[in-house]
Amino acid sequence: MIDDLPRIDGVPVTSMVTPGDAPAVAELLADAANLGQSVIPVGGGTALALGNPPGSADIALSTRGLGGIIDYEPFDLVLSVGAGARLGDVQAVLAEHGQTLPIDPPGGDDATIGGLIATALTGPLRHSAGSLRDLLIGISMAHPSGTVTKAGGMVVKNVSGFDLPRVYHGSLGTLGVIVSANFKVLPLPRTEATIVARFAGIEEAMLAATTIRTRVANAAAIESGWLDDEWFVAVRFTGREPSVRNGLAAATEVLVADTAIFDRADSAAWWKRYQAALSLTANDEDEVLIRCAVRPRTTAALALGLVAKLPVLGATPSFLGASVGLGAVLVRFQLHDGSADRLAELQMILLGLANNLTILAAPPAWKAGLDVWGRTPETLDLMQAMKEQFDPHRVLNPGRFAGFI
Questions:
Q1: Distance between the two ends of the chain, CA-based, in angstroms?
Q2: Does the residue 155 lie in any domain?
Q3: Domain count, the chain
Q4: How far apart are CA 240 and CA 250, in angstroms?
């Protein structure tokens, strides 16, 4: 639980506060700016390992007091919700009306809406449904200036000008504290099914996954990798019954290995378990979780390269998940005799295989002085200018984002 966490990524917190509304958040941020204090926004606590260790952590600002549904119009397929609302609670309300936010991020039901916007974390369903960014139509933010700003609204439409909701998405709470957000929602799929195939080696698994990507058009998610001590490919289908059955038939023609099919609740349960494997928490004191990104067509080559290179670097993988349609590979491994120098060396070497590499979780001492976000963004100057505009006193999450913003 958040209340039991005395540190934010290894940095001690002086105090924790739980404001009850947007003006209270803005007032707290303004006071912190005047006193030269730092503030770390905390949602469900499922992604506290993400980012560089903060330069300081005077105040942890819990968004628990900002939960609940603010407005919901099922007929119009729009929803407004507090930033501290748990994803699981929001999905339960939507399900009563046959609707959903089609996302399955790490952290699952315990992740908060504000945290998901700030971190931009996604799961396997991004293959077909996109990210939360694609559903976000409005947002309210509290700033260290003491103001509360709003952008967008409760209408699904195209906007002109500076699209601020998408600017805040993925900014890791460095530009303001999210207090509420508005979304377009979608109907729940009528049914779903998943086919899981097991393979003797990574080469066969990656070839099968790549073939599925090119031949099967209606997959909701395609994942492959190493889970429970075996190589696998999992393909999820959602929608109307005929579409799901046609997808299963097409996938079965490709996946000639040992296969199992899971229907409806069993299918959802399989992906819940897989989602847990993507958690941004370290199970051991020497465990590291990384995400590598390439163009989708070279995902298989990236996965093969990682499996060959990691043991040479003294790393023992316990999980690998490749999203062949997204160009992303997540690997969880133990780095024996690890240190800050060894983690930096590993990052540098593996960047030779990928367009970028993000260290999602690692022992805080190993992350000291290392930019876990990988390559310096080409837009760093613009990002720094925005930070200066929105948070000139560096109150919010100092040093946690790319380029130590």
A1: 27
A2: yes
A3: 4
A4: 16
